[in-house]
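call fold target=AAA family ATPase
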Amino acid sequence: MTEPLATKMRPQTLESFVGQEHLVGPNRPLRVAIEKGHRFSFILWGPPGSGKTTLARLYSKSIKGDLYELSAVSAGKDDIRKIVETGSIFPKIVFLDEIHRFNKSQQDFLLPYVESGEITLIGATTENPSFEVIAPLLSRCRVFVLNEHDPKNMTAIIKRTGYRMGKEAVDWLVNMANGDARQALTVLESAKQLYGNITVSSLQNALQSKFLRYDKKGEEHYNIISAYIKSLRASQPDAALYYLARMIDAGEDPKFIARRMVIFASEDIGNSQPTALVVANEVFRAVEIIGLPEAQINLAHGTVYLANANKDRSSYEAYFKALDDVKKYGNLPIPLKIRNAPTNLMKDLNYGKGYEQYTSDDFLPEKIKGKKYLKKPIKNSIKS
C-alpha cells in the first residue's frame, strides 16, 4: 500500500522539522528535551496539522523508548493495561492522540501509571487541556502549546514535496489549509493523482469531501455553531435542534457544543432564569461522563431548555462596560472605607474606617462614582 504524501513527508529529524520555533528552536524547551533525552510526560496542545505526532515520535526516538500510538477515540483501559503488562526493558511511551476524548474514568485509570513512571505519557489535543484533562493528570504533565503554521512555513512545507505548481496554486493552497500542513498535503496529493497537474482549478476540484467541508477549523464549522447559537438566542428550538444534529452527524466534539451551551446560559439567559447555568453544566457533565452516542440525548435536552428560556444579557453587557472603564482608567484608588486593614499601620491610615455592611453608599472609586453598568433585566417576550 502506498503511503500518503503527508506520511512520506513527515520529518525524521529536528533539522527537517518546519515551524514551532518557540518549542524546537535553539535552546527552546522541546529541542533541549529531545537532544538530551529528558524523560517526562507532557501534552501537546495545538491545531490540526501543526506537528504534534511528529514531535511525539522525535521525542520517543531520542529517549530510546517503545512508542505505543493510541487514539483516544477508539482506545480504552484495556489498551493501557496491555502496554503496562508488556515486558519491555525500554521506557514505555504512550502517545495518546485526541486525549480530550478520554473520559474522566479513563483518565483516572491512566493517572497512577503516569505518576509512578511506568509509562511516559504524550497527549495530543486540539482542545484546551485545562477543560479536557483532569487536574491530577494535568499537574503531572507539562503543556506545550503549538501554533498553526504561518504562510511562510506552509509554503516551505508545500515546496518540499517537489510537485511543480505556480505561485497562484501555492498561495491558494496555503490560504485554504489555514495553517494545517496535513490538510494541505492531502489536497495536493489528491489533485496530483486525479488531474496530473497542480493548478488552482485542480486543487479546488480535489477539495470534495465531507471531512474537509466540516473541518474543525473550517468555515462550515463556524457557520453551523453560529447558526446554532443564533437559533437558541431567537428562542427557536426546532432550528437549534437541526443545527445540533448537523454538528453531531458531522463528527463535532460534543464537549465543544456543551461548552458553548454553558457560555450561552450566562451570556444570553443570565439572571432571567439562573437555573439555565445549572442545566448547561449538567449537560456538559453528562457529555463528559457518558459520551456519544447516548450524550446526544442530553445535548438535545439542554438545547430545548436553553432555546425556550427567557433571555437577559444585562449581566454580560454590564461586565464588559465595567471592563472598559478598567482599561480606560487603570488602577483607580479604592475607597479607604472598603480597603482591608490587617495591620495597625493600615488602621492608622484609616483603612476600613467607616465601613458598614449594609449601606447605600457608593463603593466605586471617586472618579467613576455613580456609574451604572447594570440595566434593569429585560425578559424575552417568548413564553417558555
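return ok
Residues 175 and 281 are 37 Å apart (CA to CA). The chain has four domains: 20-145, 151-212, 219-308, 324-368.
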